[in-house]
Every structure is written in structure tokens, then in C-alpha cells.
Amino acid sequence: MKLKYIVACTLMLVFCVLTKMFGYSYSSTISKAIVPSLKSVRTIAENDFLNHLEFANELLPSGDKRINKKMKTALRAHSYRQMQTLKLHQRSEVWFPVIEPILKKYGVPDDFKYMPLVETGMKRGLYSPKGAAGVWQFMPQTARDYGLTVNDQIDERMDVRLATVAAAKYLRDLHKQFNSWTLAAAAYNGGEGRMRRQIKKQNQDDYFQLDLNHETGKYVYSLISMKQVIEHPEDYGYKISNPRKLMAYQD
After folding, report:
1. pLDDT at 138 over 60
2. Span 102-115, pLDDT tens digits
3. How many CA atoms lie within 13 A of 221 on its CB side?
4. Residue 99: helix, strand or coil by DSSP?
5. Is 15 exposed, middle or buried (0-12, 13-18, 19+ CB in 10 A)?
């Protein structure tokens, strides 16, 4: 009787151990199969976010690691940790009400208001070593071509309102040439002649796929980053004391 009891207990113990082992193994396999790692979840979230970024209604191409890397680099470069200033937000609050209606009047997308922030940080009195000046960084001859007076006595490139009118006309003409606002922005930065040559040489008319010089190659990414920083400051480390939306100037 005692022997039968011992055998029965032993069999029950073995059964419980085997059940636990296979049950654990099965559940572990299921969890690994259906639950992605934290790293992959983060990657999916980042890529999904990048896929929604756009400039002038031209979306950042999705699924391209090279493009994603350049975009992430640009976003980091414009974070508060790197820039350590709120002046961009303060200047945009002052000058966007001047710039926005002018761009709208000439049919230029509102996103181009970020261009002076990228070009000069919206500082009006800046001259580049090459001779460009004002918040839109016009070269002297281009400024004259679009109606600005530039001579020894007067330099209308320093007048934000007049310079914005000239910039809007120029950007509108660039868009007519290239049929793309991202290419228009790149041509504004790198020169329309150079842009035409690169498009022809590379047989490629997608800004994001073109192999351009360093400055022009990162230019649109900088514009998208500036747009993100101004519209969503707290996501990039900026602490805005006045929470009212800076974009409220639009109709």
C-alpha cells in the first residue's frame, strides 16, 4: 500500500514538473513571437514620425535610411541642447505677421517663412563673406533683379518687408522653373544654374535623391527642422513661458 502511494506521488510530481516546463517554454515562445523588443518599438515610432514630416506639402520619402539619418541629424542640430536660445521663437513671433501675408499674396507656401530663420536667425543686419545681406540673404544683383535698391547709399535688403516681397517673387519664379518647392528652396540656397546642372547630370529631379554639396544637401532638412522646432518647441527641449501658439497669426 505504501509503495503504491509513493509511486502515485512520484508520477504526479513528474507530471507537474513537465507541465510547468512545457507551459513556460510555450508561453515564452508566444511572447517572443508577438511582443517586439523595446528597441524595435522605438525604431518603428521614430520612422513613423519621420514619414509624416513635410515641407510645402512635399513629404519626406519613407523607408530610406540615408534620408532618415540626415533628418534626425538636422532635428538634433536644432534642438535646444544644441542652440541654447529662445531668440528664434521670439523673432518669429515678431516677424511672421509681416512675412506670412506677403508669401500668401504671391502664392508661395507658408513654410518658406522659416527660411530667414535658417539663413540668418532672422537677424536683419547680417552680411555674408560673399556679399549676401538681410534676413533673406540676397546677393546684390539678384536683389536688384527683383526690385530692391542696392547701392552705396541705400540697401533695401535690410528692409524685411521689401526683401520678403522680392524673395516671394524669386521663389515663385524658381518654382516655375523646377516645378517643385523643395527644389526651389535648394536653388535659392545653391543657385539655379548649379541646380539645373545637377538635375541634368544625375537625371534626377527629386531633391531628396540628388547628391548635392553639403550646404544645399542639408538645406531642406534644416527648413523642416526649423518648422518642427518653432511649431512644437517643447518636443525639442524649448521651454516657452507663454504657451500661446506662435502660428496663430495665420488666417
Report:
1. yes
2. 999 999 999 999 99
3. 23
4. helix
5. exposed
